[in-house]
Hints:
Blueprint: E1 8-11, H1 17-30, E2 34-40, H2 45-53, H3 58-80, E3 86-92, H4 95-103, E4 108-111, H5 122-125, H6 127-135, E5 140-142, E6 154-161, H7 167-179, E7 184-190, H8 201-214, E8 220-226, H9 231-235, E9 240-246, H10 259-269, E10 273-276
Parallel strand pairs: 1-2, 1-4, 2-3, 4-5, 6-7, 6-9, 7-8, 9-10
Antiparallel strand pairs: 5-10
Amino acid sequence: MTGLSRPVTVGVADKQHAALSFAAEEARLAGCDVRVVHAYTVPPAPPQVVGSAYGIDIPGSFRETGREVLAEATEFLASRYADVTVHPVLEQGSAPTVLTASSASSRLVVLGPDDAVPWYSRLFQSRVSRRLVDDALCPVVVVPDTWSARRSGTGVTLMLDARTTAHGPLRFAFEQASRHLDVLRILHVEPTGSGDEESPWHDMRRVLDAWQATYPRLLVDTELISGEPDLAMTESFEGTGLLVLGRPHGHHVVPAMDRSLARAVIQRASCPVAVVPPDHDV
């Protein structure tokens, strides 16, 4: 499957309209289809034995519930995005396993809420999100429940640090900003006390210059941040339309150097957050 034909995959557990809308908007811009995936698991043997004793098809009931979830999602997308082709997929298995497998043939995997925790905490705490951002073969986007295409922020913000391989996240951030005709803001975070001689910013500056030459019409704002974030800096992200994080070495979920910065910015931004593998090339 070529990069152009790869769909945007969205994992749904229930009525997750924000994630569905985000996926459809991205598919429309990319000129591809949407794959809606619902994964279900069947309880182990004892409940099934009870079900058989009482004539209840427990696996069948889980499949039927999954079909209902997919039918509602398909109907929602058809009513708002009639120009986007939708492929519902029902699979037995854990959501992380099923969606990670789907990521191999996806241009993007989109997730909505799956835990009773603040949406921005899902990158740190959620079983599904954590597994996917660690193992997915394509970018993963977590969409807050309140996201709407009509009320979304503007611009793409990319956060990098010295431990993050930059090429994949840079490619994704430039592609997204160019596709949405948005400004790109790049924030490079360095530890306090990094001297000019040892700072990786000089190497990063050359990489950025090469990407800007590829997208000469894109407005790019770069900023070097040293040390802990302050309130004024995190407040400046409130209007961000998309926050992009790289997957660092060691498979940490967020930039390894300063987790407090990532958490502060994500909480302030209240926007979709993308975690991009280092080898992203589609």
